[in-house]
Amino acid sequence: MRDVRVTVLGSAQDGGVPQPGCSRECCLRVRANDALRRHPVSLGIVGSDGSTHLIEASRAMGEQFEIWHSVDPMEGPLSSLSVTHAHLGHVDGLGLFGKEVMGASHLTMHCSQSVADLIENNPIWRALREQGVIVPNVWSSGEAFEPSPGCGFRIRPIPVPHRDELSDNHALLIEANGGNLLFMPDHDSWAETLGEASIREWLATLEVDIALLDGTFWDEQELPHRDMSEVPHPTVTESLERLGERETEDPDIRFIHLNHTNPLCNPDSSEVAELAASGWALASEGDSFTLERL
Ligand SMILES: [Zn+2]
Ligand SMILES: [Zn+2]
Ligand SMILES: [Zn+2]
After folding, report:
1. Spacing, Cα 27 to ligand 3 middle (Å)
2. Which is deepest, 27, 48, 188, 265, by most CB within 10 Å?
3. Which domains can be identified in the chain, with CATH numbers?
């Protein structure tokens, strides 16, 4: 029996970095330097029994499996998939499980009822279910489940407000013995997610040791041609204001789900230095965390 290992396989917003169609400085810089590329958010988890669990089904899964292999050489098919919500970058790789690519057989897909309903209502995804490629398994919101029997950890889906025109949205708390890891790539606002609590209080209630938090936008100046109220995500600057500087007992917080416009994508930016000075961090692909098994 081994410990449970969680690896970051993707750290960008749904569009990836560089983003298709963007020919501005933000993406030109990345096209000139492969090391700056970021895939849509995803995590790979290896359970204590060697079982393998993917969080989110991104279209970049091919490259993401290579990252995962480099940390944890995997054998055999995936044991489970869990999906937070139905926005593009979180589900657009589902077809890769079909017979044209991986030809998966009865892959358990843990998701909410509303995501499962969407699978049934989309002819391409319904075909995957009818062909026995994926088997949607509906979780109870707020209740921890074992993604496969004996895997040594649980996943607790926590309902989190996020524009819900397609499906609802959950943050996923990966629960093990030696620590909990929170994966929250998308939410609309701290006010809606937390109510009256502070970020610290909320993370403490969930006994979080490592938090991968929505860092889509640095600040409100980022999309001059779009009304930011239509693209709701708390900005990193707001999160930093709410958090203040990191203190000794604080959890390890890393920002994830970066939009291509986010200056945190540029390692030479003053914003990267500002984040580092505050004591918090940026998630990188290949970051991995070891959690003691249950
Ligand atoms: Zn997203
Ligand atoms: Zn760009
Ligand atoms: Zn989303």
Report:
1. 21
2. 265
3. 4-291 (3.60.15.10)
Ligand 3 center to 257 CA (angstroms): 10
**Nearest ligand for residue 90 CA:** 1
- Over residues 68-85, mean pLDDT: 93
Nearby residues for ligand 2 (ion, Cβ within 5 Å): 22, 26-27, 260
Give the β-pairing of 4-10 and 288-291.
antiparallel
Residues 158-208 pLDDT 10s: 999 998 889 999 999 999 987 899 999 999 999 999 988 999 999 999 999
Q: Tens digits of per-residue pLDDT, 241-271?
A: 999 999 999 999 999 999 999 999 999 999 9
Query: Rounded to an integer, what distance in angstroms lies between the CA atom of residue 284 and that of residue 12?
Result: 10
Distance 154 CA to ligand 2 centre (A): 37
pLDDT at 184: 98
Q: What share of the chain is helix, strand, coil (3-state, %, to 5)?
A: 30, 25, 50
Contact 210, 251 (CB under 8 A): yes
User: CA dihedral defined by 289, 292, 293, 294, rounded to 10 degrees?
Assistant: -120
Using the mean position of ligand 1's atoms as its centre, give its distance from the Cα of residue 179 in Å: 25
Gap from CA of 181 to ligand 2 centroid (Å): 30
Confidence of residue 1 (pLDDT cuts 50, 70, 90): confident
